Amino acid sequence: MKRLAAILAAAVLLGATPQAPPVALDALLAETPAPTLDAYRLFVDAGARSPNGRVTPYGLNTPLFSDYAEKFRFVFLPPGKAAAYTAAGALDFPVGTTLVKTFAYPADFRRPGEKVRFLETRLLVRKADGWTALAYVWNDDQTVATLKRAGTRLDVSFIDAAGRARQVDYAVPNVNQCKDCHAVAGEIAPLGPKARNLNGAFAYASGPENQLARWSRMGMLTGVPNPTKAPRTAVWDDVVEPLAARADAYLDANCAHCHNARGMASNSGLFLEVEETRPAARGIGKRPVAAGRGSGGLEVSIAPGDPAASILLHRMRSDEPGVMMPELGRSLVHDEGVALIAQYIAGLEPAR
Amino acid sequence: MRTLAITLAALLAAGTAHAKTLAVGPGANAQERVQTALIDAKPGDVIELAAGRYEFTDGLSLDIDGVTVKGAGPGATILSFAGQKGAGEGLLVTSDRVTVRDFSLQDTKGDGIKAKGSDQISFLNLVVEWTGGPKETNGAYGVYPVSSTNVLIDKVTVRGASDAGIYVGQSKNIVVRNSTAEFNVAGIEIENSMNADVYDNVATRNAGGILVFDLPNLPQMGGHSTRIFRNRVVDNDTPNFAPKGNIVANVPTGTGVMLMANKNVHVFDNEIDGNASAAVILIAYSQTFDDKTYNPLPRDIVVRNNRLGRNAWAPAFTGGAILAKALGGTVPPVIWDGVVAWPGSEAVRVRLSDGPVVNLNLPKPGAMMEANPKISPTLGEAVIEEPKPVVLPSDQDKLIP
């Protein structure tokens, strides 16, 4: 059996895709989740490097920071089904849709394609009564990913892009924690695949192409306007883009999943979706309500012109539970994100 | 119609008959075992945490309706979060009709037990504490229901919270009773909430005993209708150790009861003694804000029939010493900043029958330098109807701690 898998994997690598059985839609929609990831046949190889038919890779203009993990994203749409375009929020996906995200670290970020260790593969499955979140944790041999509902922690070490040795006490979320971030008014919802965040080029095997255009062309998405007419999230680390747009995009991706009027942090009154325009709701001169020691002795979320006096930045700079934000999904400080937001706050006109 | 009701009742009873107990004990891998029970539970189930000490590295969370999480008693079942590496609280509840009871929860990095958006959330017979004593690095809130409805807190003790021990925020229909808050910055705080009864509690050795606040720029504002009665609010003398920036950092050490903004708050039949700054303070929210819908003034306030002992001998608020000097050496135990004008505000009415009372007659919130203090034995004759007692759903009200 192992030998067969090896042969299959070799065949995939050679590009001679054998007739793999299709994605197991019935397994995805079953009430009881499969104990191991392979049961869904989302990938044709045991190591989940090669997606099955109808499983399409995608990327986001600005993703959530997750302790520098690489994320490999795929969307599966059931045969004959397509998502419907929406200008705001996640696209309207049909029942059976499965969003797949594998968290991985290369041993050395200066050689990102080599010795890539998969940690976990998360699924969001659209069932008839809503979305279900699942996390599958990879074994050391990288041959099996097993369902983990109560979460766990994994030791990770890697060499970062600057050549420094880094350690991560990586947290696999429990199913409730999945929902803490992925909740809209108490129901699980996807965060990444919004039209605005997909509205950019992806490097397909056939060459780069705008994802909205591609999905439309492939019959995966209906009702798409010309991408130039669709909203677009800035790429947070593309210095060619305006600073404010990059900062807004970063805050949207890293904060707004909780900090919105229907999210886990709704009671804070701090709302950081790109659509939010009220200065106080965006944190400008806003005093904390339940920050506790997270305030760091500072008075307001964002003090225009004064990054050092801004609670929001203070909490981004912390790696201490009870202080750091986001509360879930990271244990390291995102230095590049901190630099972006510091630069953005420094450039805001101070209140008179 | 009646037949249908009976059938439904029978069905419901049958439903709970399937309720089961998920027993979990302390020891290795407690994190995963307890969290798994919290995920596997079905409505009606009881998760029983056997006596012993549980060491957690991450927050726990419950998102199933109708579950009871029960220990073997505070001091017997101890959930320790001293080694916590992530999450903003020890236990997070996001479902309805949940009861947490009979255990101790210690040393969380953030809040102790939080309930967000929960209907019928009950906290019974718990001890939530930071075991190193009052410290700025302790978590903010011990017991923390927020954006919730039908909140019951009964026989709960909280110690060491760097904000409020028992904090109810942006909620409706609230009962806090038979509980003890000590060595916190604020003992018990009701904030941006409607219809709260706070009675038969002890608030002692905090910086401030019991607070009723309303704050701007929040989804739920316009807090009103709170009754504070039969509490012992005594010897609140722990120096305020809240991190700056938080509103409670402004609570003067030695405050008994503090009412800020909010409407229709009745304080009666309490014992208020041994609070060096004041027995009762009525004050407007005085920080800058950008919110036209917010009223920063306390209004419709009744303070009556309280047993005021020795209070206000060393007021710790800004200008307190100057005020004491101007008033001949001492400050009266009941202090009102006297702000009565705010654009769009209804008339400000008070009935302060316990005294003496000092009215600072501030022309606007926070204008202490323009104070024109006047002392009177009592102040205000307004007839202000008392809020009706809070009625919880009968199933919840029947819970016994």
Task: Describe the 3D structure.
The complex is a heterodimer of chains A (352) and B (401). With 352 residues, chain A is an alpha+beta fold. Chain A folds into two domains: 23-229, no CATH class; 243-346, no CATH class. Chain A is built from eight helices and 14 strands. In chain A, strands 1-2-4-5-6-7 form a six-stranded antiparallel beta sheet, covered by helices on one side. The N and C termini of chain A lie far apart (72 Å). Chain B has 401 residues and is mainly beta. Chain B has a domain at 110-386: Pectate Lyase C-like, CATH 2.160.20. Helix content of chain B is 9%, strand content 38%. Chain B has four helices and 31 strands. Chain B has helices spanning 2-17, 30-40, 320-326, 394-397, and strands at residues 21-24, 46-49, 52-55, 60-62, 68-70, 77-80, 89-93, 98-106, 111-116, 119-129, 143-146, 149-159, 164-169, 172-177, 180-182, 186-191, 194-199, 202-204, 208-213, 224-229, 232-234, 255-260, 263-268, 271-273, 278-283, 299-304, 307-308, 334-336, 350-352, 357-359, 374-376. In chain B, strand 1 (21-24), helix 2 and strand 2 (46-49) form a beta-alpha-beta unit. Chain B is elongated. The chains are: A alpha+beta (352), B mainly beta (401). Chains A and B meet through helix 3 of A and helix 2 of B.
